[in-house]
Amino acid sequence: MRHLLILLILVLLGCNRAPSTNPAATEQLTENPQDDHSYANLKQINTTHLHLDLEVDFAAQTIYGTARHRMRNNGADTAIFDIKGLLIQKVTLGPKNKERETDFTIGPMDKDSIFGQALLVNVDSTTQYVNIYYQTTEASAALDWLDTTLTSSKTKPFLYTQGQAILTRTWIPIQDSPSNRLTYSADVKVPSDLLALMSAKNPTQLQKNGLYHFEMPRAIPSYLIALAVGDIAFKDLGHNCGVYAEKELVDNCANEFEDLPEMMRVAEALYGPYKWGRYDVLVLPYSFPFGGMENPMLTFANPTLLTGDKSLVSVLAHELAHSWSGNLVTNHSWSDLWLNEGTTVYFEERIMEALKGKEVADILAQVEFRELEQTIAEMRQDSSYEDSKLHLNLVNRDPDIAMSDVAYVKGAFFFRTLEQMVGRKKLDAFLKQYFSHFAFQTISADEFIDYLESELLAKSGKDFNYRDWIFQPGLPSNCVRIAAPRIEKIESQAQLFNQGKNPFKAKVSYKWVRKNGKRKRIKTLVQTKYQDLLIQEWQLFIGALSNPPAYRLQELDKQFAFSESGNSEILCNWFVLAAKSDYAFQIEPKITAFLGKVGRRKYVLPIYEALASSPKGLQLAKRIFHQSKSNYHSVTRRSVWKMLQKQG
Ligand code: BES
Ligand code: ZN
């Protein structure tokens, strides 16, 4: 209700100058041929450079801003921007200090409140500069304002933004389409004891006056504009890589991420030079809704990656890979998120293979493949099978839908299968050439297909059923499978467990030793310990269990202490399994503590979902959500809330 009120105020404020009679004012988003998820009239007029003047006010949890758009104008009389949850104060035309106010109108909110509102600004055919004076509101969904209790220091607050897919419009009035690229600069004022960072060239030192200037000199899509403000320290890792984190965490981060320079060397050797200057990672507070976000020059990362044993660094390989796939070559629309994510997962797996060897990399990939199989099976069941296509129909739908194992893992297996067919050497040469040919541009599925046809398939004289892969649901029958002895072993151990046995029972083994010149046979007990296997082997094991009853989960927990694991992947898989039996109630404090602390949606949502599958569990889920929701970013909060709503 409070949100409704704010929106009402926004609409009213928007009309405080003479409303425009421009017919575009009534234009429906669904009629925009340029982007299913943006109101912007990019063909007529589009931003090429954005300068932001921002003041970050923690007390009011508000950013006061001016968005200064330099525009390429094809003779438009209206410039259309996207906004959602913003208060627009005034709009002016012209360069700074030579500005004159102009009329603007704010269109209605779309009926599902996904896309927000069009901001229509009256311009003339020669207008080059449009300046929008605004402030954010509580409905600015990109922003996560953390009060001191939710940070490591417990004494300083924190703010970060999450733009992808269409949340940049909730903190900047902008043409919020991945098809438009712009450079940006910013002058940001923050409290003098906090450091500000952006997806741009960054400071490493606190500025006493709290003023920071940023430049992103390479053209990027709007979803990659990002800001973070907090009590942040920096540590250099060498080779143009470094880590930022809250002071308490920065040493841990430097240890956990020490392979970054090596990843960078591997990535460049694979697909060409890194084009963005430095590569730094910022570790955010626990509420961050993703494992990582590839904001250029400054990947945002989840603190759950800090496991102490580097077991989750593939997330960094993934975000680094986006510096090519996604940030250099960007999906033209969210319908082709697979062109960003599938390519990136394939690239990530190649980096991990170079670092850890093929066997380990294959185990990591198998975990994802099993998840994909399950996702596709579920889609079949709840009649969303169409969404298992790589290219999605997202008209009138939240682009968030595209973020599933399909774009990521089916996308990656598209490239694995292609690799098997044409050979690694040819695929690598193709991808390298693809990243350089389309650098700083966007790409649609059709353009990708044309390029694939002419530059890879025709040249190698091969036929590839890419149409099935891209436009048909499910997994094509030629999809490559991963096979490795260690995968077979752990998956068959899961089957033994499913048959009521304990595959990890201590085994007696005999060993010959030499003592006082005599050979002697000694008996030892061999028992698998938690530390003996990779995290990802345990994930394969837990993932292959078919809903064991509580007492059997308890047995396993006694042996391996999964509930106590310091690894959030294990905790998530384990809690999901527990929630499908009564075991969840035995370890309720552990589940409650995890959901109260961690906000990564990939973990949080499946646990709530599994809990909600029984009436008693649903009650518990609601109780935990009620307690924890203020610790989540809106992305996670909204997804869990929607799911719980559906369960009644
Ligand atoms: N770019 C994505 C996150 C994203 C995708 C946000 C679509 C909003 C819409 C990021 O690179 C990502 O894929 N993160 C994954 C990492 C994993 C696949 C290694 C995550 O957070 O789980
Ligand atoms: Zn990604």
Give a structural overview.
The protein is of the alpha+beta class and 648 residues long. The protein has 19 helices and 23 strands. The strands form six sheets. Strands 5-4-8-2-1-11-13 form a seven-stranded mixed β-sheet. It has a five-stranded mixed β-sheet with strand order 15-16-17-19-18, with helices on one face. Strands 9-10-14-12 form a four-stranded antiparallel β-sheet, with no helix packed on it. The protein binds ligand BES and zinc ion. Zinc ion (ZN) binds at residues 318, 322, 341, 344.
Could you list some keywords that capture this structure?
648 residues; alpha+beta; Immunoglobulin-like; Zincin-like; Neutral Protease, domain 2; seven-stranded mixed sheet; five-stranded mixed sheet; 19 helices; 37% helix; globular; binds zinc ion
Instruction: Report the helical percentage.
Output: 25-40%
Proportion of residues in β-strands:
15-25%
CATH class of the largest domain: Mainly Beta
Instruction: Give the termini distance in whole angstroms.
Output: 20 Å
Enumerate the strands of the largest sheet in spatial order, edge to edge or round the barrel.
Answer: 5-4-8-2-1-11-13
CATH superfamily of the largest domain: tricorn interacting facor f3 domain
CATH topology of the largest domain: Immunoglobulin-like
Label the overall shape. globular
Q: Which consecutive residue ranges, at least 5 long each, have pLDDT under 50?
A: 1-27
Structural class: alpha+beta
Bound molecules: ligand BES, zinc ion
Radius of gyration: 26 Å
The count of DSSP E runs of length 2 or more, i.e. the number of strands, is: 23
Taking the sheet with the most strands, its summary is: 7 strands, mixed
Number of helices: 19
CATH-defined architecture of the largest domain? Sandwich
Number of domains: 5
Nearest-integer average pLDDT: 95
